[in-house]
Amino acid sequence: MSIKDHGKDTSLSNEDIASIVSASTFGHGDDRSNQGSSFTAYFNVVCVVAGTGTLGLPFALRQGGWIDTGVILIRSLYSKNKRLTSYQEVAEASFGAIGGWVAFFFTAVTLVGVPVLYLLLAGQNLHSVLQGTSGELTFPIWVIICAVLVTLPFVCFKSLKEIGFLSTFGVLSTTVVIFIVLAVAVREKGTQGAKHHDAVIWDQFPIALSSIAFSFGGNPVYAHVEAGMRRPQDWTKVVTAGLTTCVVLYFLTAVPGYYVYGVDALSPIYDNLPEGGAKIASVIIITVHVLLATPILLTSFALDLEKMFQISTGKFSTKVELVLRSAMRLALMVIITVIAIYVPFFGDFMSLLGAFSNCALIFIFPVIFYFKLTGFRGKAWWEYILAFFTVLLGVVGLIFGTISACQALYSYSSSLAYSYFFIYKPNFETLYCTTL
Fold it and tell me: Which residues cross the membrane (predicted)?
């Protein structure tokens, strides 16, 4: 096993990774005999990556290299002859403290922002499904109920190894929704009539790329998923199998969805389904999925925070560590719930930050970190080509995704200003004068 030498290649083989794992110590050592299986890690990857992205890709097709980055990101963890523990540590090893804080900001945007969106989606779904029934509640109450359901596993389970069983049910729920949408779309084809389809919409293609990038946004979680594996040398197989499964699930939804509904395709795609049992089932099941996926995302972020604040049994007693960890996670859930309920147009604001964070975390940063830590010279010719186009995709998605998000924010703020100056304010002044 080599070390970095004047820019030469120092990438590691699976055997190198296994030897580092057996020799290194982090936490209370790196004995992985009690860690989760590679199969559990596979479900974690699919559960985090697949889901709501599946339902948005038909709309992305209407608008118009991630396995490799998942592999080289984990290889970067072992580039210093010891295992780094997080995305932030890889960034810090590459570009110092500034690089670490930049990476932490982007991962925080994803690992906190996406759970907020998931709570919004779950609350909205339950509110709409039960509206007009005896179970009708206000939207904020449904968000709070969803937050409580997420809090239970998030606080009770410490790591992704322990929380991994949720991912199995999350993957199953996503698969069920996909087949419901597929079956209804096939049935609807005869009633939809001729739909317009575009081979490529070039001015919308970069924006669609941003949507696709979001649909593969698992990189911030990968370090913690791999840390929970008994056999980390199987990571390449796990991430390849996991993301390949996601691609298959995405195609089962995206292609038939766009083929049947054409330019009328919506996001999420179940909004195109006719009112009835299939649509209600899809809404409820995808709500179950986001409630199962949210603790996985939050646990990854909480593990980074706990390492940052040194909340571990190595520094505190078991009881004190439990109290501090639970308090921090409860505080995080309160913050997320408050944002979901009270922050206006958070979805559009998150789209702006997501255009930066997802494209950077998925396409750009892993490649830069990998070459920085392992050297630029001595790699196979195809690695340079793949790296170039991966970074190019990330830059294109970042630029046009940001433009699209800014336009959405501008449109929303303009409508708010119109409502205030031409609807709310005149009515208020009329009411005030009448009162006088």
Answer: 41-61, 90-119, 139-157, 164-185, 205-223, 235-260, 280-305, 326-346, 352-373, 385-410
Which residue do the tokens 């958070």 mark?
346
CB of 301 closer than 8 Å to CB of 331: no
Chain centroid to CA 358: 8
pLDDT above 90: residue 173? no
**Is the CA virtual torsion 366, 372, 376, 379 positive or negative?**
negative
- The pLDDT, as a whole number, for residue 134 is 84
Report the distance separating Cα 372 and Cα 92, nearest Å. 11
The pLDDT of residue 49: 61
Instruction: Compute the distance between CA of residue 78 and CA of residue 402 in angstroms, rounded to an integer.
Output: 33
Calpha distance 253→256 (Å, rounded)? 6
Instruction: Answer yes or no: are the C-beta atoms of 110 and 358 closer than 8 Å.
Output: yes
Distance CA 353, CA 340 (A): 16
Please provide residue 28's backbone torsions phi and psi, each rounded to the nearest 5 degrees. Answer: -105, 40
In angstroms, rounded to a whole number, what is the distance separating the alpha carbons of residues 402 and 356? 7
Backbone angles phi, psi at 247, to 5 degrees: -60, -45
Of 207 and 321, more confident: 321
Q: What is the mean pLDDT of residues 358-382?
A: 87
Which 3-state string (H, E, C) describes the chain?
CCCCCCCCCCCCCHHHHHHHHHHCCCCCCCCCCCCECHHHHHHHHHHHHCCHHHHHHHHHHHHCCHHHHHHHHHHHHCCCCCCCCCHHHHHHHHHHHHHHHHHHHHHHHHHHHHHHHHHHHHHHHHHHHHCCCCCCCCHHHHHHHHHHHHHHHHHHCCCHHHHCHHHHHHHHHHHHHHHHHHHHHHHHHHHHCCCCCCCCCCCCHHHHHHHHHHHCCCHHHHHHHHHCECCHHHHHHHHHHHHHHHHHHHHHHHHHHHHHHHHHCCCCHHHHCCCCHHHHHHHHHHHHHHHHHHHHHHHHHHHHHHHHCCCCCCCCCHHHHHHHHHHHHHHHHHHHHHHHHHCCCHHHHHHHHHHHHHHHHHHHHHHHHHHHHHCCCCCCHHHHHHHHHHHHHHHHHHHHHHHHHHHHHHHHHHHHHHHHHHHHHHHHHHHHHHHC
Q: How far apart are CA 111 and CA 366, in angstroms?
A: 17
Tokens matching residue 244: 């390949």
- Counting beta carbons within 10 angstroms of the beta carbon of residue 375, is it exposed (0 to 12), middle (13 to 18) or buried (19 or more)? buried
Q: Which of 120, 89, 102, 58 is nearest to 351 (CA)?
A: 120
**Alpha carbon distance 73, 71 (integer Å):** 5
